[in-house]
Amino acid sequence: MKKLVVGIIAAAALAAMARPVMAQAKTVTSEMRTETGTVESIDATNRVVTLKKSDGTFVAVVAGPDIARFAELKVGDKVNARYYENVILRLKQPGEPETMSQVKGTTGSEQVLPGGTKAKQTTITATISAIDTTVPSITFTGPSGLKYTSKVQDTEALAKVKVGDKVDITWTAAMILSLDGQ
Q1: Using alpha carbons only, what angle is made at residue 143 by residues 168 and 141, rounded to the nearest 5 degrees?
Q2: What is the 3-state secondary structure (H, E, C) of the chain?
Q3: How far is CA 163 from the centre of its chain?
């Protein structure tokens, strides 16, 4: 179930993956984030779990077939999710082929209660389609025309790139999910 949360968080993080660019490679790491929630409802037929987060909001997540212990979840279970992401940007050399790959892995928990770890690494080639030094910001255009604009904190790195440059963006995300044993 918690691995379901990963899919939603991963999608959100992919949409927000643009970070400062540097001439060679730049790594942008994030802090480990923790979310807690309570299982409010379970639709076993469609494998949908509705969670009430600690801030009172609700999120519905789909448990994929890789969630082996789905049937053990019950309304009222407390869910803990720890999430981490890492982004690496690398300026491509002229003539280098474009990249698009994804690797995923899921490991179940050996604990009494259901849980596990899910990780995903995605690499894409994006083109710098706009630079605004007054904000400062950068716009990337990726596969299928996906565009994303982000403010840039490292203005020295921004000065080293130009519109039309290609960048490989490798985004790695991992989530560790567990149930509280009350």
Answers
A1: 70
A2: CHHHHHHHHHHHHHHCCCCCCCCCEEEEECCCEEEEEEEEEEECCCCEEEEEECCCCEEEEECCCCCCCHHHCCCCCEEEEEEEEEEEEEECCCCCCCCEEEEEEEEECCCCCCEEEEEEEEEEEEEEEEEECCCCEEEEECHHHCEEEEECCCHHHHCCCCCCCEEEEEEEEEEEEEECCC
A3: 26
Domain ranges of the chain: 2-179
For the record, the structure tokens of 131 come out as: 């630079």
> What's the confidence (pLDDT) of residue 20?
36
What pLDDT sits at residue 112?
Answer: 62
- CA torsion angle 158 145 104 82 (round to 10): 60
Q: What integer pLDDT is reported at residue 148 of this predicted model?
A: 82
Averages of pLDDT over runs of 10 residues in the chain (182 residues) are 36 35 57 84 90 88 77 88 82 90 78 72 92 90 86 82 91 78 57
Q: How far apart are CA 163 and CA 6, in angstroms?
A: 33
Supply 140's token pair.
């990337």
Termini Cα distance of the chain: 18
Residue 6: per-residue pLDDT: 35
